[in-house]
Amino acid sequence: MGMTMAEKIIALAAGVESTKAGDIETVTLDRLMSNDGTTHLTIDMYNNLKHPKIADVDKLVWIIDHNIPADSTKTAASHQKMRSFAKEHGITFYEGEGVCHQVMMENHVRPGELIFGADSHTCAYGALGAFGTGVGCTDYLYAMVTGTSWLLVPESMKFNLTGKLKEGVTARDLILTIIGKISANGANYRAMEFCGEGLHTLSIADRISICNLCVEAGAKTALMEVDDVAMDYLKEHGREPKAIVKADEDAVYCETYDIDLASIEPIVAKPHFVDNVVPASECYGIKINEAFLGSCNNGRIEDLRAGAKVIKGKKVADKVRFLVVPASRAVYNQALKEGLLDIFVEAGAMVMNPNCSVCWGACQGVIGEGEVLISTGTRNFKGRCGHKESFVYLGSAETVTASAIAGEITTADRV
């Protein structure tokens, strides 16, 4: 019996010839990422161990990205704890460099790796053919001190992509369409594997956007075949694959979907669930108070270019706040070089430092009671971005930017 991509990567990490869905394997982790959302809790637990140790410090990557700059003395203390521990133990540490998943993709992730991240959107790493999955503090600590963990091998769902996205339609529209189709529980503890000719038409930015949101369908991980596009990205960033795995022709999938990219239309996810998706046209005219372009899902240079193209020569609507937040310092610097940030500022947008910003709902652009936000963030749960009686809509970079101009939800072809 053949193996899926997820099964092959787990088998490689477990040192076994083969494995299948439902098996439990002890695996050696290739990398462990943690951010300031929970690292202070991991440190506290570590310090309470009888014989604390780190199995392989070279595998650890710690990133401050959720609340930066610190928004309170409590946050400052948490950052101090993280900073000091990282320095004491020689842990690779980033502060002010951007959102954790973008920093990881730019600097660390390699095809064939098995990566634990103390953040649910770690599945983004599948864009480079790596098995990334989010874990809690306890599982992270165990892996940190032993270098290993156990995994229940997930079933895999296959998404065969054909065709090409139409102009004005994005990879974010694609993944929101998929989540709406299979539901927020449709991939619970499953691997979502993407392949097909249509995949080759998608950029790495597109692929990150797709894999990143797979957890919103409950996925354990997301994986994409490694092709020339992925290899070019690796070469550009000075890295080589650990292993390039491809599913066997006789691999077993619990479900298979054939998706024609040309059939996808602009999509909006309505409050308060990511799978509450409708054609963007059904939301036309809904008044907004704030728009957000950024996050680990849509804060890359391609997203900023798309937004700048829509807003160039126009203005943000009166009484609308438009936050533009590059996903990393590298993206910020590139946007500076290309003059994109000038375009946003001249239009009346607020350009922020690279961080999670309002997607996290804690330190920038928090929305008040009754306010409406349209966002390229990852979630629109009740209270996610501020007051429990606020409303969050999710859309693409183009839709969010167009809405900021119109002062109401709309699409780029209408501004």
TrEMBL record:
<keyword id="KW-0479">Metal-binding</keyword>
<dbReference type="InterPro" id="IPR006251">
    <property type="entry name" value="Homoacnase/IPMdehydase_lsu"/>
</dbReference>
<comment type="similarity">
    <text>Belongs to the aconitase/IPM isomerase family. LeuC type 2 subfamily.</text>
</comment>
<feature type="domain" description="Aconitase/3-isopropylmalate dehydratase large subunit alpha/beta/alpha">
    <location>
        <begin position="18"/>
        <end position="407"/>
    </location>
</feature>
<dbReference type="GO" id="GO:0051539">
    <property type="term" value="F:4 iron, 4 sulfur cluster binding"/>
</dbReference>
<dbReference type="InterPro" id="IPR036008">
    <property type="entry name" value="Aconitase_4Fe-4S_dom"/>
</dbReference>
<feature type="binding site">
    <location>
        <position position="356"/>
    </location>
    <ligand>
        <name>[4Fe-4S] cluster</name>
    </ligand>
</feature>
<dbReference type="InterPro" id="IPR001030">
    <property type="entry name" value="Acoase/IPM_deHydtase_lsu_aba"/>
</dbReference>
<feature type="binding site">
    <location>
        <position position="359"/>
    </location>
    <ligand>
        <name>[4Fe-4S] cluster</name>
    </ligand>
</feature>
<dbReference type="InterPro" id="IPR033941">
    <property type="entry name" value="IPMI_cat"/>
</dbReference>
<comment type="subunit">
    <text>Heterodimer of LeuC and LeuD.</text>
</comment>
<keyword id="KW-0432">Leucine biosynthesis</keyword>
<dbReference type="InterPro" id="IPR011826">
    <property type="entry name" value="HAcnase/IPMdehydase_lsu_prok"/>
</dbReference>
<dbReference type="InterPro" id="IPR050067">
    <property type="entry name" value="IPM_dehydratase_rel_enz"/>
</dbReference>
<keyword id="KW-0004">4Fe-4S</keyword>
<comment type="pathway">
    <text>Amino-acid biosynthesis; L-leucine biosynthesis; L-leucine from 3-methyl-2-oxobutanoate: step 2/4.</text>
</comment>
<dbReference type="InterPro" id="IPR015931">
    <property type="entry name" value="Acnase/IPM_dHydase_lsu_aba_1/3"/>
</dbReference>
<dbReference type="GO" id="GO:0046872">
    <property type="term" value="F:metal ion binding"/>
</dbReference>
<dbReference type="GO" id="GO:0003861">
    <property type="term" value="F:3-isopropylmalate dehydratase activity"/>
</dbReference>
<protein>
    <recommendedName>
        <fullName>3-isopropylmalate dehydratase large subunit</fullName>
        <ecNumber>4.2.1.33</ecNumber>
    </recommendedName>
</protein>
<keyword id="KW-0100">Branched-chain amino acid biosynthesis</keyword>
<keyword id="KW-0456">Lyase</keyword>
<dbReference type="Pfam" id="PF00330">
    <property type="entry name" value="Aconitase"/>
</dbReference>
<keyword id="KW-0411">Iron-sulfur</keyword>
<feature type="binding site">
    <location>
        <position position="296"/>
    </location>
    <ligand>
        <name>[4Fe-4S] cluster</name>
    </ligand>
</feature>
<comment type="function">
    <text>Catalyzes the isomerization between 2-isopropylmalate and 3-isopropylmalate, via the formation of 2-isopropylmaleate.</text>
</comment>
<keyword id="KW-0028">Amino-acid biosynthesis</keyword>
<keyword id="KW-0408">Iron</keyword>
<dbReference type="GO" id="GO:0009098">
    <property type="term" value="P:L-leucine biosynthetic process"/>
</dbReference>
